[in-house]
Amino acid sequence: MNGYSISKATLGRLPLYLQYLKSLPAVNGATISATAIARGLSLGDVQVRKDLAAVSGAGKPKIGYERTKLIDDLERHLGYERLTNAVLVGAGKLGRALLDYDGFEEFGVKIVAGFDCNEQALQIGKNTKPILPIKDIASYCAEYNVKLGIITVGKGSAQDVCDQLVASGIEAIWNFAPCTLKVPSSVLLKQENLALSLAYLNNQISK
Amino acid sequence: MNGYSISKATLGRLPLYLQYLKSLPAVNGATISATAIARGLSLGDVQVRKDLAAVSGAGKPKIGYERTKLIDDLERHLGYERLTNAVLVGAGKLGRALLDYDGFEEFGVKIVAGFDCNEQALQIGKNTKPILPIKDIASYCAEYNVKLGIITVGKGSAQDVCDQLVASGIEAIWNFAPCTLKVPSSVLLKQENLALSLAYLNNQISK
DNA sequence: CAGTAATCGATAAGAGAATACTGATAAAAG
DNA sequence: CTTTTATCAGTATTCTCTTATCGATTACTG
After folding, report:
1. C-beta atoms of B195 and A103 within 8 A
2. Has residue B97 got a pLDDT over 80?
3. DSSP state of B170
4. Helix (H) or strand (E) holding B112
């Protein structure tokens, strides 16, 4: 229960606050209240206040929080100012879409290169990010200090790719392949299942 | 506490079980225990058992569950056998990647068409899914009984697109744009923020 | 300068989910 | 046929997250 422990649920909302604060026009003044944020994001005001207290803790009654300070605190706490290098394996359609998506950089993650075993995919994309042969991945990761690996290959080769990433010294893996991967406990794994989100929606509407 | 109420957390895991059961080779026999499933998915055995009890409830000691029956129960309960039609708005890189991804259909959702306002994008993709001008969306949704809309446009036009989808009679929206949308309470909204997942990972590894 | 309104922080209460525990059941082994 | 082992089901406990409540603080208003 030290100052570093932030609940997962709260952590998940922090980027939301950051995004919302950044999207506000400067016209709205230099300060903003938790109540206003809650209205903007359709959350409870108490929850917003609690979340913000975990990272910042300086709010004045009747005034609210200083916007620039709040943004700073959020960014610092999320570690967004250090850029983490990431690689992506699997230059299929989804893989290339993520490669070309610039939105990650504002969250502190930079995808520096893509890898693929298919020779046809080995080309320099128009967005300056190279797609390299998978065999070079270990040396590349070592050279560029890559901490994070993204897997967008089919489920057949996902575990194989995963093992290679782990061997390359990756610290965290973001897996889009619809399968469960085995990783050492020292490596952080986040499973992304897009179809699952859809399935949830589908189930809700057909009730 | 009737048969219809399943917790959101459980519901989110059901597709995992389904996927795992389907991926098992037939060699493993016709039955499987909750303990085995738990091992395969790195979950607690008790949790698996509890989840399965919510949809099936027939398990024998020492034996486990009958695999085919379990798959049937899962599929029926998730409503996967009815195919829901979906449209996607925003034929950018991510949009096209999702359009071309076939994996959704096994979860009961079929993306039947993409829409975009950009004339250059109006073409028939190689995967037989048409990309149409956005102005036709209302009539298209009515004709094909579309229940679900996917938004992959930039945040600038997301709300506008959302309103059009709602006006077209959509029941649920899956939004990839990094912004909060306003929808009537009758419409189900699921926000997908890919950058958020990355941010979470990044925060964890830099601790 | 006093009163009012808005907001904050903290503690407490509530709900929901994960986990642990206990007893029961069925197959397998001796 | 009895004992052992693996598994299931149900209850209870614990944990986490959310929501509610209360007093305190600060700006605004008359």
Report:
1. yes
2. yes
3. -
4. strand B109-116
Q: Cα–Cα distances in Å, from B15 out to A35, A172, B49?
A: 37, 24, 15
Task: Write out pLDDT tens, residues B32-57.
Answer: 999 999 998 889 999 999 999 998 87
Query: Mean pLDDT over residues B142-165, rounded?
Result: 94
Query: Does A190 contact B at CB distance below 8 Å?
Result: yes
Residue contacts between A and B (CB atoms, under 8 Å): 169
Tokens 């422990």, residue? A5
What is the mean predicted confidence (pLDDT) over A61-65?
91
Decide if B35 contacts B62 (C-beta within 8 A).
no
| Å between A190 CA and nearest CA of chain B | 7
CA of B154 vs chain A CAs: smallest distance (Å): 11
Smallest Cα–C1' distance to nucleotide D19: which residue has it? A46
Check whether B118 has a pLDDT greater than 90: no
Please say whether the beta carbons of B177 and B158 come within 8 A. yes
Q: Distance between alpha carbon B12 and the CA centroid of its chain, in Å?
A: 10
Domains of chain B (ranges, CATH numbers) = 8-78 (1.10.10.10), 83-199 (3.40.50.720)
- Chain B CB within 8 Å of residue A15 CB: yes
**Strand C atom within 7 Å of A46 CB:** yes
Q: Are A189 and A165 in contact (CB under 8 A)?
A: no
